[in-house]
Amino acid sequence: MLYQFVRPLAIIALKTHFRKIYFSNADRIPWDKPVILAVNHPTSFIEPCMLAAYLPKSLYFLARGDLFKKPAYAKILASLHILPVFRMKDGGYGKIKNNYTTLARCFEALNEQKTILIMAEGSCIQEKRLRPLRKGTARLAFGTYDKYPDLDIQIVPVGVNYTYPDKFRSEAMFDFGEPIAVQDYVSAYQQNTNEGYRQLTDELESRLRKRVVVIDKVEDESLVENLLILHRTDHMDELLPILSESEDRLQNEVRIARQVNEMDGSLKTYLSKLSNVYFSQLKANGITDESLQRPTFANTSNIIVLITGFIPFVIGYFGNYIPLRYAQHVMETKVKDVEDKMSVALVVAIAGFLVYYLLLVIFGFVINNLAFWILLLLLPIWGVFALVYREFYAKYKTAKKLGTLSPDLRTELQQMRREILQKF
């Protein structure tokens, strides 16, 4: 019941939280069969929220057992189709024994052709690389096979990528790979359990790696990010529709990271130095790569747009300020791990807006004023408009700032940019 209630709220929240969501190749999921969605894990729980929101079929999730310590939380999580997986630090062997109950419920769910989501890496770290996969996915698949050998269990690799996972109004890219038929690995599993686990896990990792932006070396992250920014500027997608089925953005970002991974060391060093100088110069002068490429954005037409939209912006911004500010406060003061920050902010914002708008509705009944009801109906729309308006104004402001630069500096920056792209 709670799952179906929260789902539409999550859809609205996610479309507000992210500037753009790419959800590609979801048609590869064989919904007529028992499915395990094997996902990489860069944030604490935005991935399951996203998949539950935008996939047409209800999902069942596995989450760490310490979230279930309080009975009230356990009931809420259970109503959201979340099942506990206990670790030694969650309560020793006594708690670990409870995992048998969780696995049994997963086996039953798959037998009923339901869909299980599992975080294949087994841990949550915010980085652009794929960590070695744990054997948990294979154990779940073969454990189900042992109990129900006639099931045609399918594992679908799901690559999850974010432009900036810890930033509001960034982009999310989800891509679904071709399903893996567990039956194809049963022979190896029956001959040697560990070998069956290894083969299935290796195949899953190989397919998942193709859908994840992987930067092999930490020291290359700055160069890859610089190149990604240049590419995004040259290949900007329209804001609408927010939800896109295109895989072009992801494949280009995967390609850029792969090229850097395979790049000659001397060229890599040269591009790192040149791109760092380029972006340092942009930052020092208060402009962006996008404003340098679109200097005409600070035009009369856009001034008119800003003036015309100012009043709706003010109403939308301040009318929705309280729950948004509270979510930001919780994120900044209560959450330590970077992987948890945006996930917690998203959940707090959803709950905060529910309470906030409920109070406004109650107040509306008290004053019984038609103008107030009209304002209340428009307030969410103007709230979204305020987000877009702020981004529009930021672009206008940096484009305007560009006009203060000397022609020589602008030419120098453009030459650096061209050289980076030509060498790359």
Total tally of structural domains: 3
CATH 4th-level superfamily of the largest domain: Glycerol-3-phosphate (1)-acyltransferase
Provide the CATH architecture of the largest domain.
3-Layer(aba) Sandwich
Shape: flat
CATH class of the largest domain: Alpha Beta
SSE succession: HEEHEHEHHEHEEEHHHEHHHHHHHHH
Number of helices: 18
Q: Biggest β-sheet: count, sense, barrel?
A: 9 strands, mixed
Mean pLDDT: 93
- Distance between the terminal alpha carbons, to the nearest Å? 52 Å
Residue share in β-strands: 5-15%
Topology, number of strands: 9
CATH fold call of the largest domain = Glycerol-3-phosphate (1)-acyltransferase
What does this 3D model show about the protein?
The chain folds into three domains: 2-216, 3-Layer(aba) Sandwich (Glycerol-3-phosphate (1)-acyltransferase); 220-285; 296-404, no CATH class. Strands 1, 2, 3, 4, 5, 6, 7, 8 and 9 form a nine-stranded mixed beta sheet that branches. It is flat and about 70 Å long. Helix 14 packs across helix 17. It is an alpha/beta fold and 424 residues long. Helix content is 60%, strand content 10%.
